Predict the structure.
Amino acid sequence: CILCKKYLFTEDRSTVLCPACETHIEQNLPPFCPKCSRHLEKNTASGPCAQCRDYQPYFDSAVGVCAYNSTMRKLIHLFKYGNKLALRHPFSKIIRTFTDTYAKDMRQYDIVTAVPLHPARLRERGYNQSHILAETIAKTFHLPFCAGNLIRTKHTQFQARLSQKDRWTNIQGAFKIKNFEKFQEKSVLVVDDLLTTGATLSEIARVIKQAGARRVDVLTVAIADSNSDLP
C-alpha cells in the first residue's frame, strides 16, 4: 500500500491502496456550491459560496470529488511530487463512482484537457501529473484528449506561497492557446488534481473561452477550503 506499506495480496498493478487506507478517503458531500462544488452547510442558501461570489471564476462549473483531508493531502503530494503515478487508477475509480452517484453526464464534453506546467517546472519535476490524470479520465469515459494546445507561457510563483488575493493576480496572463480552432464551439473539460481558490482553473477557463469554447467545466480529484495550503 502506498500509504501504510502493508502488503497487497493482488497481482493487479492498478491496486495501490489497501482497503483500510481507502476508507480514509472522504467523498465531497452535498449540498454543493453550484459553481465550484464546495461543500455548503445545510443552513446555507443554495446560491454560490462566498468564494465564488467574491471572485466569480470564469469556468461554468467545477466538480471536486473528494474532501481534502489528511489522507487525500498525502496522496496528492505523492502523485504530484513523489512519482507515484499509479495513483491515477484509484483517482479515476473515485471519479467514476462520483459521476455515477450524482448522474453527471460525461458525454456532454467534446474535449478533455489538462492544466499545463511551464517548461522549466516540467523539467524540474519530470512529468505533469495533471496531464497523466486527464489522459486517464479521457480513456475512462471514452472522450477525446487534447494535449499541447493549452500552454503555460509565464513561470509564476508557487500559488501556495501567496495570499488568496495574490493567487488570482499571480496567475493572470500565464496561459495561451496555440490553435483556437481545436476549442471553438466545443464543450471542454479541464482536469486537475486539486481545486483550492480556483484561480488557476479560472484563468485557464478564461483563455479557452477566448478561443471560442462554448463551455468550460473543471474536474478535480479533491477540493479544499479556499484558505488551505497546496500540497
